[in-house]
């Protein structure tokens, strides 16, 4: 069985999205998202996805953070998160992307 969502927080020693962003050189953005006033994980994941996609980090992200499931499934989920981000002006203002 695969994970339907990618982990935001470290779980069972697995690398999480926040760690991934930090390791990829986006520690400031990772910290801002983690400390953001947006408590809904969907909104936080949407911000993470926006950075990953804009910076072309999908392959590395899938292999290190979200290896479960098919690429088609993961891309479909990423599309939904990105659409959520694109439709939320509060997130766009907060992240500035």
Protein model, in words:
The chain has 97 residues and is mainly α. The chain contains 6 helices and no strands. Helix 1 (17-23) runs antiparallel to helix 2. The longest helix is centred in the last third of the chain and has 16 residues, at 71-86. It starts with 16 loop residues before the first helix and ends with a helix.
How can the largest sheet be summarized?
Answer: none
State mean pLDDT (0 to 100 scale): 89
Radius of gyration: 12 Å
Distance between the ends: 34 Å
Bulk shape: globular
Roughly how much helix do the residues carry, as a percent range? 55-70%
Low-confidence stretches: none
Our count of helices gives 6
Secondary-structure element sequence? Answer: HHHHHH
By DSSP, the count of extended strands is: 0
| SS-derived structural category | mainly alpha
Proportion in β-strands: under 5%
Give the key terms.
61% helix, 97 residues, single chain
List the helices and strands and how they pair.
Elements lengths: L16 H7 L3 H8 L6 H14 L3 H7 L6 H16 L2 H7 L2
């Amino acid at each position: 069985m695969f994970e339907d969502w990618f982990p935001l927080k470290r779980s069972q020693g697995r690398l999480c999205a926040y760690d991934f962003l930090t390791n990829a050189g986006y520690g400031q953005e990772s910290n801002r998202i983690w400390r953001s006033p947006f408590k809904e994980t969907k909104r936080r994941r949407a911000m993470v996805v926006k950075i990953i996609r804009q910076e072309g980090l999908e392959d590395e992200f899938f292999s290190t953070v979200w290896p479960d499931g098919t690429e088609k499934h993961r891309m479909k989920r990423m599309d939904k998160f990105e659409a959520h981000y694109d439709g939320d002006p509060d997130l766009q203002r907060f992240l500035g992307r």
